[in-house]
User: Fold this.
Amino acid sequence: MKKQFLIAGFLTIALGALALTSCNNTPSEKKDAANEAMQEAKEKAAEAKEDMKDASQAAMAAMRAERDSVAMKIDKAADDLDAEIAKIDSKMAKASAKEKARWEERRKRLAAERDELRADMQKVNDDMKDGWADFKNSIAMKLDKVSEDLKSDK
Assistant:
């Protein structure tokens, strides 16, 4: 969108310079006016390039902040899973054979979720530019599932 405005502005300046130069009487005045218009166009192009650079840097900073937020949520969920697994381990030490089987199944499920979150954490630490929205949605669903699993005692 900015490029379109930049191009439109550049064309307006160039056409304006052409119209102004056609009114001048001497070739020298025409050349000076054209050079001035060209210089203005170059300055505007440099400004637009700087604006694009600033916008790109701001977008990258926002993406890094969002990535850090997701990483913190993943870390917390993994820590919660570790704590729950530790609780299950202590319950299994005191449980009957039937209860041990139930606790072992839950422990396996929670450990698998934790391992999956840790793998996702590695993806977050990698430089992610493509597919960020899909990745973020996937993580949100996994964190919701982990939260539900931790609330249940099955």
Notes: The longest helix spans residues 27-94. Residues 2-151 form one domain. The chain has a mean pLDDT of 79. Helices lie at 2-23, 27-94, 97-125, 132-151.
